[in-house]
Amino acid sequence: MEDEGKADTCLVEFIVEPNYAGWRLDCYLGQKLGRLSRTRIQALIRKQLPALKPSSCVKPGMRLQLWRSLPKEPSVPGPEALVQVFEDEDLLVLDKPAGLPVHPSARYFHNTLVAQLAGRFLRPPSPAHRLDRETSGLLVCTKTPEAGRQLMRAFASSLVYKEYLAIGEGHPLCPRFSVEAPIAEGSAAIRIAVRICPEGKPATTHVEVLRTFHRQGRPFCLLNCRPVTGRQHQIRVHLKHAGFPLVGDKIYGPDEMYFDRFSRGLLEPAAMERLMLARHALHASVLCFEHPRSRAPMRFESALPKELQAFLEAET
Predict the structure, then answer these.
(1) Which listed residue (26, 90, 95, 132) is catalytic?
(2) Are 64 and 87 found together in one domain?
Protein backbone atom coordinates (compact mmCIF):
# COMPACT_ATOMS: atom_id res chain seq x y z
CA MET A 1 0.00 0.00 0.00
CA GLU A 2 1.85 3.12 1.20
CA ASP A 3 5.04 1.54 2.55
CA GLU A 4 8.45 2.78 1.47
CA GLY A 5 10.39 0.57 -0.86
CA LYS A 6 7.53 -1.03 -2.79
CA ALA A 7 7.74 -0.72 -6.55
CA ASP A 8 4.20 0.61 -6.94
CA THR A 9 4.54 3.53 -4.54
CA CYS A 10 6.10 6.98 -4.53
CA LEU A 11 6.75 9.70 -1.98
CA VAL A 12 4.37 12.61 -2.50
CA GLU A 13 4.93 16.02 -0.90
CA PHE A 14 2.18 18.52 -0.17
CA ILE A 15 2.99 22.16 0.67
CA VAL A 16 0.09 23.84 2.45
CA GLU A 17 -1.24 26.84 0.50
CA PRO A 18 -2.34 30.05 2.27
CA ASN A 19 -6.06 29.47 1.68
CA TYR A 20 -5.91 26.33 3.85
CA ALA A 21 -4.52 28.10 6.93
CA GLY A 22 -6.16 26.78 10.09
CA TRP A 23 -7.73 23.70 8.48
CA ARG A 24 -7.62 20.38 10.30
CA LEU A 25 -4.93 18.13 8.87
CA ASP A 26 -7.41 15.38 7.95
CA CYS A 27 -9.66 17.91 6.19
CA TYR A 28 -6.70 19.33 4.24
CA LEU A 29 -5.56 15.89 3.10
CA GLY A 30 -9.17 15.09 2.29
CA GLN A 31 -9.06 17.90 -0.29
CA LYS A 32 -5.84 16.53 -1.74
CA LEU A 33 -6.76 12.83 -1.58
CA GLY A 34 -10.40 13.10 -2.54
CA ARG A 35 -10.82 9.41 -3.30
CA LEU A 36 -10.03 8.35 0.29
CA SER A 37 -12.51 8.36 3.17
CA ARG A 38 -11.79 10.46 6.25
CA THR A 39 -11.29 7.24 8.24
CA ARG A 40 -8.64 6.09 5.76
CA ILE A 41 -6.96 9.50 5.79
CA GLN A 42 -6.85 9.53 9.60
CA ALA A 43 -5.24 6.09 9.51
CA LEU A 44 -2.62 7.38 7.04
CA ILE A 45 -1.84 10.31 9.36
CA ARG A 46 -1.36 8.03 12.38
CA LYS A 47 0.87 5.67 10.38
CA GLN A 48 2.93 8.08 8.30
CA LEU A 49 2.77 11.39 10.21
CA PRO A 50 3.04 10.21 13.83
CA ALA A 51 4.20 13.63 15.08
CA LEU A 52 0.81 15.07 14.06
CA LYS A 53 -2.82 14.32 14.82
CA PRO A 54 -5.79 14.29 12.43
CA SER A 55 -7.08 17.34 14.32
CA SER A 56 -3.77 19.26 14.02
CA CYS A 57 -4.13 22.66 12.31
CA VAL A 58 -2.08 23.16 9.15
CA LYS A 59 -0.15 26.36 8.43
CA PRO A 60 0.91 27.92 5.11
CA GLY A 61 4.23 26.49 3.95
CA MET A 62 3.94 23.33 6.05
CA ARG A 63 5.42 20.35 4.17
CA LEU A 64 3.74 16.96 4.43
CA GLN A 65 5.14 13.78 2.86
CA LEU A 66 3.16 10.59 2.29
CA TRP A 67 3.90 7.34 0.51
CA ARG A 68 1.12 6.71 -2.00
CA SER A 69 0.24 3.90 -4.40
CA LEU A 70 0.65 4.64 -8.09
CA PRO A 71 -2.49 4.19 -10.21
CA LYS A 72 -2.35 4.97 -13.92
CA GLU A 73 -2.35 8.74 -14.25
CA PRO A 74 -4.40 10.72 -16.78
CA SER A 75 -2.35 12.51 -19.41
CA VAL A 76 -1.71 16.25 -19.00
CA PRO A 77 -0.19 19.05 -21.13
CA GLY A 78 3.56 18.58 -21.40
CA PRO A 79 6.34 20.97 -20.28
CA GLU A 80 6.27 22.70 -23.67
CA ALA A 81 2.78 24.05 -22.85
CA LEU A 82 3.99 25.72 -19.65
CA VAL A 83 4.91 29.28 -20.64
CA GLN A 84 7.52 31.22 -18.64
CA VAL A 85 6.40 34.83 -18.24
CA PHE A 86 9.07 36.17 -15.87
CA GLU A 87 12.06 34.96 -13.88
CA ASP A 88 14.62 36.48 -11.54
CA GLU A 89 16.59 35.20 -8.55
CA ASP A 90 13.46 35.15 -6.34
CA LEU A 91 10.48 34.49 -8.59
CA LEU A 92 9.21 32.47 -11.50
CA VAL A 93 5.91 33.54 -13.07
CA LEU A 94 4.23 30.99 -15.34
CA ASP A 95 1.22 30.85 -17.64
CA LYS A 96 -0.32 27.47 -16.82
CA PRO A 97 -2.37 25.58 -19.42
CA ALA A 98 -5.76 24.12 -18.53
CA GLY A 99 -5.57 20.43 -17.64
CA LEU A 100 -2.30 20.59 -15.69
CA PRO A 101 -2.68 20.08 -11.91
CA VAL A 102 -0.36 22.15 -9.75
CA HIS A 103 0.17 19.71 -6.86
CA PRO A 104 -0.08 15.93 -6.41
CA SER A 105 -3.53 14.63 -5.59
CA ALA A 106 -5.49 11.39 -5.48
CA ARG A 107 -5.23 10.99 -9.27
CA TYR A 108 -1.98 12.79 -10.12
CA PHE A 109 1.53 12.09 -8.84
CA HIS A 110 4.10 12.64 -11.57
CA ASN A 111 1.91 14.53 -14.06
CA THR A 112 1.86 17.83 -12.17
CA LEU A 113 3.32 21.30 -12.48
CA VAL A 114 5.60 20.76 -9.48
CA ALA A 115 6.95 17.58 -11.11
CA GLN A 116 7.63 19.48 -14.34
CA LEU A 117 9.50 22.15 -12.38
CA ALA A 118 11.52 19.44 -10.61
CA GLY A 119 12.61 18.18 -14.01
CA ARG A 120 13.65 21.67 -15.14
CA PHE A 121 15.36 23.15 -12.05
CA LEU A 122 18.05 21.84 -9.72
CA ARG A 123 16.23 23.60 -6.88
CA PRO A 124 12.60 23.65 -8.06
CA PRO A 125 10.56 26.79 -7.39
CA SER A 126 7.50 26.36 -5.16
CA PRO A 127 4.03 27.59 -6.20
CA ALA A 128 2.99 30.43 -3.89
CA HIS A 129 -0.71 29.85 -4.52
CA ARG A 130 -2.92 27.46 -6.45
CA LEU A 131 -4.97 27.21 -9.60
CA ASP A 132 -7.48 24.43 -10.19
CA ARG A 133 -6.43 21.83 -12.73
CA GLU A 134 -8.81 23.11 -15.41
CA THR A 135 -8.11 26.80 -14.67
CA SER A 136 -5.50 28.34 -16.95
CA GLY A 137 -3.40 31.43 -16.47
CA LEU A 138 -0.89 33.18 -14.24
CA LEU A 139 0.82 31.41 -11.38
CA VAL A 140 3.74 32.76 -9.34
CA CYS A 141 6.36 30.46 -7.84
CA THR A 142 9.12 31.38 -5.39
CA LYS A 143 12.76 30.32 -5.65
CA THR A 144 13.93 31.12 -2.11
CA PRO A 145 12.45 30.40 1.34
CA GLU A 146 12.28 34.10 2.20
CA ALA A 147 10.45 34.96 -1.01
CA GLY A 148 8.06 32.13 -0.26
CA ARG A 149 7.33 33.42 3.23
CA GLN A 150 6.81 36.98 1.98
CA LEU A 151 4.42 36.01 -0.80
CA MET A 152 2.47 33.55 1.33
CA ARG A 153 1.89 36.33 3.86
CA ALA A 154 0.78 38.63 1.04
CA PHE A 155 -1.71 36.08 -0.28
CA ALA A 156 -3.01 35.31 3.21
CA SER A 157 -3.48 39.04 3.88
CA SER A 158 -5.29 39.64 0.54
CA LEU A 159 -2.46 41.94 -0.61
CA VAL A 160 -2.18 40.22 -3.99
CA TYR A 161 -4.45 41.62 -6.71
CA LYS A 162 -5.96 39.05 -9.08
CA GLU A 163 -8.35 39.19 -11.99
CA TYR A 164 -9.93 36.25 -13.77
CA LEU A 165 -11.76 36.06 -17.08
CA ALA A 166 -14.77 33.76 -16.96
CA ILE A 167 -17.43 32.67 -19.42
CA GLY A 168 -20.71 32.11 -17.63
CA GLU A 169 -24.17 30.98 -18.61
CA GLY A 170 -26.90 33.62 -18.67
CA HIS A 171 -27.09 37.41 -19.07
CA PRO A 172 -26.57 39.50 -15.91
CA LEU A 173 -28.94 42.45 -15.59
CA CYS A 174 -26.33 44.73 -13.97
CA PRO A 175 -23.01 45.66 -15.61
CA ARG A 176 -21.25 45.28 -12.26
CA PHE A 177 -22.16 43.32 -9.17
CA SER A 178 -20.53 41.73 -6.13
CA VAL A 179 -21.09 38.34 -4.55
CA GLU A 180 -20.63 38.26 -0.80
CA ALA A 181 -21.37 34.72 0.32
CA PRO A 182 -19.54 32.65 2.96
CA ILE A 183 -17.97 29.40 1.75
CA ALA A 184 -17.75 26.11 3.65
CA GLU A 185 -15.89 22.96 2.65
CA GLY A 186 -17.48 19.80 1.32
CA SER A 187 -20.83 18.94 -0.20
CA ALA A 188 -23.23 16.04 0.18
CA ALA A 189 -22.03 14.38 -3.03
CA ILE A 190 -18.44 15.57 -3.65
CA ARG A 191 -15.93 16.04 -0.86
CA ILE A 192 -13.60 18.33 -2.82
CA ALA A 193 -16.47 20.69 -3.63
CA VAL A 194 -17.39 23.73 -1.54
CA ARG A 195 -20.79 25.24 -0.76
CA ILE A 196 -22.38 28.51 0.24
CA CYS A 197 -23.15 28.29 3.95
CA PRO A 198 -23.90 30.94 6.63
CA GLU A 199 -21.36 29.26 8.93
CA GLY A 200 -18.65 29.30 6.25
CA LYS A 201 -15.67 31.62 5.87
CA PRO A 202 -16.37 35.15 4.53
CA ALA A 203 -15.77 35.49 0.79
CA THR A 204 -16.24 38.36 -1.66
CA THR A 205 -15.94 38.48 -5.44
CA HIS A 206 -16.42 41.62 -7.56
CA VAL A 207 -17.72 40.98 -11.09
CA GLU A 208 -17.83 43.16 -14.20
CA VAL A 209 -19.75 42.13 -17.31
CA LEU A 210 -17.51 42.59 -20.36
CA ARG A 211 -19.82 41.15 -22.96
CA THR A 212 -23.09 39.24 -23.44
CA PHE A 213 -23.81 36.99 -26.40
CA HIS A 214 -25.76 33.95 -27.57
CA ARG A 215 -24.56 30.60 -28.77
CA GLN A 216 -26.88 27.88 -30.08
CA GLY A 217 -29.74 30.06 -28.91
CA ARG A 218 -28.50 30.13 -25.30
CA PRO A 219 -27.32 33.25 -23.40
CA PHE A 220 -23.73 33.59 -22.20
CA CYS A 221 -21.52 36.30 -20.72
CA LEU A 222 -17.83 37.15 -20.57
CA LEU A 223 -17.00 38.31 -17.04
CA ASN A 224 -14.05 39.89 -15.29
CA CYS A 225 -13.91 38.54 -11.74
CA ARG A 226 -11.85 40.01 -8.93
CA PRO A 227 -11.74 37.85 -5.81
CA VAL A 228 -11.10 39.87 -2.63
CA THR A 229 -10.62 36.70 -0.60
CA GLY A 230 -8.96 33.51 -1.80
CA ARG A 231 -11.21 30.61 -0.84
CA GLN A 232 -11.20 27.21 -2.50
CA HIS A 233 -13.22 27.31 -5.78
CA GLN A 234 -14.41 30.79 -4.80
CA ILE A 235 -15.18 32.25 -8.23
CA ARG A 236 -16.78 29.03 -9.44
CA VAL A 237 -19.17 28.66 -6.52
CA HIS A 238 -19.88 32.41 -6.34
CA LEU A 239 -20.86 32.53 -10.03
CA LYS A 240 -23.12 29.53 -9.53
CA HIS A 241 -24.67 31.25 -6.51
CA ALA A 242 -25.25 34.40 -8.60
CA GLY A 243 -26.94 32.38 -11.35
CA PHE A 244 -24.13 32.45 -13.94
CA PRO A 245 -22.26 29.13 -13.61
CA LEU A 246 -19.06 28.66 -15.58
CA VAL A 247 -19.36 27.03 -18.97
CA GLY A 248 -17.81 23.56 -18.75
CA ASP A 249 -17.84 23.33 -14.95
CA LYS A 250 -18.29 19.68 -13.97
CA ILE A 251 -18.94 20.44 -10.28
CA TYR A 252 -20.78 23.76 -10.15
CA GLY A 253 -22.44 23.54 -13.57
CA PRO A 254 -25.54 21.62 -14.70
CA ASP A 255 -24.97 18.52 -12.54
CA GLU A 256 -22.32 18.08 -9.84
CA MET A 257 -22.32 14.31 -10.48
CA TYR A 258 -20.70 15.01 -13.85
CA PHE A 259 -17.43 15.33 -11.91
CA ASP A 260 -17.63 11.82 -10.45
CA ARG A 261 -18.34 10.24 -13.82
CA PHE A 262 -15.65 12.37 -15.49
CA SER A 263 -13.02 11.36 -12.92
CA ARG A 264 -13.80 7.70 -13.65
CA GLY A 265 -13.72 8.22 -17.42
CA LEU A 266 -17.45 7.56 -17.71
CA LEU A 267 -18.88 10.96 -18.64
CA GLU A 268 -21.42 10.38 -21.41
CA PRO A 269 -21.41 12.32 -24.73
CA ALA A 270 -24.72 14.01 -23.84
CA ALA A 271 -23.12 15.49 -20.72
CA MET A 272 -20.14 16.77 -22.69
CA GLU A 273 -22.53 18.34 -25.20
CA ARG A 274 -24.38 20.07 -22.36
CA LEU A 275 -21.10 21.36 -20.85
CA MET A 276 -20.05 22.73 -24.28
CA LEU A 277 -16.37 22.87 -23.30
CA ALA A 278 -13.95 20.13 -22.27
CA ARG A 279 -12.62 22.43 -19.52
CA HIS A 280 -14.27 25.00 -17.30
CA ALA A 281 -14.05 28.53 -18.66
CA LEU A 282 -11.92 30.29 -16.05
CA HIS A 283 -8.58 32.01 -16.77
CA ALA A 284 -6.25 33.86 -14.37
CA SER A 285 -5.60 36.95 -16.48
CA VAL A 286 -4.02 39.54 -14.16
CA LEU A 287 -1.67 39.13 -11.21
CA CYS A 288 -0.21 42.06 -9.22
CA PHE A 289 1.93 41.99 -6.09
CA GLU A 290 4.92 43.61 -4.42
CA HIS A 291 8.26 42.01 -5.21
CA PRO A 292 9.39 40.19 -2.04
CA ARG A 293 12.94 41.58 -2.19
CA SER A 294 12.89 44.95 -3.99
CA ARG A 295 9.31 45.91 -3.00
CA ALA A 296 8.78 47.05 -6.59
CA PRO A 297 5.20 46.69 -7.89
CA MET A 298 4.87 43.73 -10.26
CA ARG A 299 2.05 43.32 -12.78
CA PHE A 300 1.52 40.44 -15.19
CA GLU A 301 -1.21 39.85 -17.77
CA SER A 302 -2.26 36.80 -19.77
CA ALA A 303 -4.59 36.75 -22.78
CA LEU A 304 -7.59 34.45 -22.99
CA PRO A 305 -6.39 31.05 -24.30
CA LYS A 306 -7.40 30.00 -27.79
CA GLU A 307 -10.07 27.47 -26.80
CA LEU A 308 -11.95 30.08 -24.76
CA GLN A 309 -11.46 32.74 -27.42
CA ALA A 310 -12.88 30.31 -29.97
CA PHE A 311 -15.98 29.86 -27.81
CA LEU A 312 -16.52 33.63 -27.87
CA GLU A 313 -15.98 33.88 -31.62
CA ALA A 314 -18.46 31.11 -32.38
CA GLU A 315 -21.42 33.08 -31.02
CA THR A 316 -24.66 32.83 -32.96
Answers:
(1) 132
(2) no
